[in-house]
Amino acid sequence: MGNKQKGLNTEIVTPSILPGFIELLPNEQLLFNEMKDKIRNTFELFGFIPIDTPVIEKADVLLAKSGGDTAKQVYRFNKGDNDLALRFDLTVPLARFVAQHYNDLIFPFRRYHIGKVYRGERPQKGRFREFYQCDIDIIGNETLDIINDAEILVVIYATFKALDIGDFTIRINNRKLLNGLFSELRIDNKIEVMRLIDKIEKIGADAVKSELASDFGLDEEAIDKLMTVISINGKPDDVIERLEKVEIIDEIFQVGVSELKEVVSHIKSFGVPEANYSIDLTIARGLDYYTGTVYETNLNDFPSIGSVCSGGRYDNLAQNYTKKKLPGVGISIGLTRLFYQLVNGGIIETGNKKTTTKLLLIPMDGYKDYAINLATKVRSNQISCEVFFNDAKLGKKFSYADKLGIPFVSVIGEDEVKNEQLKIKKMDSGDEILVDADKLIEVLKG
Amino acid sequence: MGNKQKGLNTEIVTPSILPGFIELLPNEQLLFNEMKDKIRNTFELFGFIPIDTPVIEKADVLLAKSGGDTAKQVYRFNKGDNDLALRFDLTVPLARFVAQHYNDLIFPFRRYHIGKVYRGERPQKGRFREFYQCDIDIIGNETLDIINDAEILVVIYATFKALDIGDFTIRINNRKLLNGLFSELRIDNKIEVMRLIDKIEKIGADAVKSELASDFGLDEEAIDKLMTVISINGKPDDVIERLEKVEIIDEIFQVGVSELKEVVSHIKSFGVPEANYSIDLTIARGLDYYTGTVYETNLNDFPSIGSVCSGGRYDNLAQNYTKKKLPGVGISIGLTRLFYQLVNGGIIETGNKKTTTKLLLIPMDGYKDYAINLATKVRSNQISCEVFFNDAKLGKKFSYADKLGIPFVSVIGEDEVKNEQLKIKKMDSGDEILVDADKLIEVLKG
Lengths: 446, 446
Hints:
Two copies of one chain form a homodimer.
Chain A: H1 2-5, H2 26-45, E1 49-50, E2 56-58, H3 59-62, H4 68-73, E3 76-79, E4 82-86, H5 91-100, E5 109-118, E6 130-139, H6 147-163, E7 168-174, H7 175-184, H8 190-198, H9 200-203, H10 205-214, H11 220-230, H12 236-245, H13 251-269, E8 277-279, E9 293-299, E10 310-314, E11 328-334, H14 335-344, E12 359-363, H15 368-380, E13 385-387, H16 394-404, E14 408-412, H17 414-419, E15 422-426, E16 432-435, H18 437-445
Parallel strand pairs in A: 1-5, 7-8, 12-13, 12-14
Antiparallel strand pairs in A: 2-4, 3-4, 5-6, 6-11, 7-9, 9-10, 10-11, 14-15, 15-16
C-alpha cells in the first residue's frame, strides 16, 4: 500500500556517503561517544561553559580575515541572497560570538565547544572533511593573567588522564621566544620560518638547515645560533636555566623566557607530574594568531600520530569583530582524527559492545506486562534495559543479546513471576544466577 | 605585536549570524543541554543505540525521492565535482545508513540520533533554518511486531516525564483507518485529504468541510460520514468500541481499527496513565511514508505550541536504497523549536545560572597551590570547581561568582590552611559555614 501511494519510482539509489566523510558503526560510535563524554565532563569540571554556534555562518563574517589555504578549503555557497560558509574551526565562531554578545558575557569567559567543523581538504587516510573539534578557551577582558596558560595545561592533563589512552606528554613553548630569536637573527618572514621549524620532527634538522639557507638566505652563523637555541632540551628547569644564559639580547626573547619560566613554575605548583610535560623549543604552531605559550600533546607510544591536542595564547581574539582587546588562551582536540588513529593503530579496541543495554528481558507468552514493569524498575535505577517483544524463536532472542553484546539476559515466565525470583544469564560466562528484584539491580550495577 | 604580524587589515566586520539561525547565551544553553541530556538518557535507558551521520550527503542520494517543498528548502551546492546537500531530517539519513550497513546491523535495530538538520524555510518566529531533531526508530528486518508501536509511546511518555515541562497528552491514530475510510468514500487524493484533515485543529471543522466539497468534490453524504467518523472521541476503549460499530466495510479500515485496538491494549498493560494518551482520529501526519500508527504529543496547558513530538509507523523505510523490506516505527522531537517556545512562552525559566561550577575558590597571595589541590579533590568527586586566578579586587571576584550564579565561594588564606577549615559562603543567602574538606564535598553534593 505504501508503495502505491508513493508512485512508480522504484529505482534503487546505491547508498553511500561522500569521499572524505566518515560515519561509525554502533560499536565504534559508542566508544566515540564515551570519549566525547569524558572530554565534555572534564571541561565542565573545570567550569568551562558550553556554547553551540550555527554550523552555517555569513561568509563575509566567517572569512573576515582568512586567506590562502583556509579560504580554498571552506564550503561556501549561496542560498537565496545569502552568501554562506560552513565553519572550518571553532575559534573564529568563538571570536564572533564573544564580540557579538560581549555585554552578556562574564569575563574571564571560560567556554567549551564540541562540534563538527568542515574543511574541503584533499581526501587522505586519517584526514576528514567533516570532523569534531573539542575546544576550550579562557578569554579575558583587556588582560588575562599568565597563570591561565598553566591552568589550560592542567585541563589537557586531566582530559588525557580521563581518556585513558596511554602515556602522553604535553610539550610547551613560547612564541615570543621564537619571535625574539628571529628578530635577533634579522629573520623577516617569521611566520614562514615558524612553519619550517614546525616541520623539524617530520623532515629533520638538516633539511630545516638547508631550507633556512636556500629559502630564507640565512648565513651559517645565524643558522647555527637558531639551531643551537631550539635544540636546548632536558628537564623544564634545566631548559629555563640554559635559556637564561643564551646570548640573545632581544627583549621579546627575554619576555618569552620569563613567561615560559612563570608558566612552568605554576605547572609545578599545580602538581602536574613531570613525566607529562616538557619544554620543546621546536614547537612553533604555524597559525599566525598565537603570541605566547603554545601547546602540543603527543601519545608517548605513538609519536607518529602527531599532536593530539594543540593550542596557545593569543593577544587579541576578536580584532576582526570588535575594538575591544580580548586576550585568551585555549586548546583544541581533533576528536574524529584522534579516534580514527586510535582505532586504526589498534591502540583502542572497538570490541563487540553495540548497545548500552545491560539487561535483555525475554517474556514468555502472557508475561509482557510483568517484563515491562520490571524494565521500568531497572530503568528507574539508571540502567539501560530492553524487553524483546518481537516474535522469534528463543535461540534467536538470545542470539540478539549475544550479537549486541548485552551482558545479562533473563527469560520471564510462570516460575519467575510466581516465585518472584529471576534467573539471570551472564552472557560472557554462561553462568546463571537466581535473584530477586533488588538483587537484580545490584548485579546490574556491579 | 600580534597585530603587526597579521598585516594591515584592521577593518571591523559587524559580528552577526544569518537570519533564521539561532544561538543561545550560556544560561539558555545550559538549560537546552540539560533537556538534550535528559532526552538522550531516556533513549539510552530503552536500549536505543546512537548513530551520527554526516551533515553533508551526496545530493542524489539524499534527495533520491524528495520533491516539492522539501527539495526547495534543501541547502544544496557544489564543491569541486561533488553535488552536495545538507540533511533536512534524520529519517532519510537513517534509511540510507540502514541500507548501506545492513550486514553490520542487528535487527530489530533500535537507533537514536540527536543532531542538527537544515531547512531553508522562510524565516518566521519560532521556525529555524538550523535546528536539533531528537529521533528514535525501531527498524525490523522484513517484519516488526505492532507491540513496538506501543513501546514507542512508552518512550515518549518516559521522555516527557523526564523533561518535566508540564502535563502532556500523546494522541494516536492509525493511517490505515483513514486510508480505508477514504477508499470507502471513493476519495482519490488521499495524501492531500490527510493534509487537510491535519489542519482541522487550526482552521476548524467547517472550513475542512467546505474544502472537502470545493477542492475534492465530495458530496454531502460522504463529508458527513467522514466527519462523523473522525469526530469520534472519548476514552480509548470507548473510541475503539464505537469504531467497531461504524458502518465501514473497507478491509483496510477494519485492519486500522484492529491495529489501534491492539496498540491501546499494549499501552494499557504497559502502565501508561490514561491521562497521558488518547485516540484522536483527526491526526493524519501529512508525510506520505506513514502507513499505520501515527503519534502527536501536546502540552496540555499550551495547546498553541502544537505537537512537540510526532511520528509513526512505516512499512518500508529504505525502499529508495535497498530491495530489503525494512518496516519501522519512530518519533522525532524538534528540540530547538520546543525550547524556543518553552522559553518564549514563559513555560520554563532560563534563570541566572550561567555555569555548571558549584564552587569558586579565591586564593589569597601564596595560596594558589593549596586552592588548586583542593579544586582537584572537589573535581575528583565529579563536582565542577573553579579557582579564581586573575588579578582583581576581592569584591570583583565575588561579583564574578554572583553574576555566573556559582552557588558557593570560599576564600583561601593563612587561617584556612592552618586550621584545615574552610569558610564557605552560600551566595544566595549570604550565610557562611565552616567545613573541613570532607564536609565540603558533602555540602556541595547536597
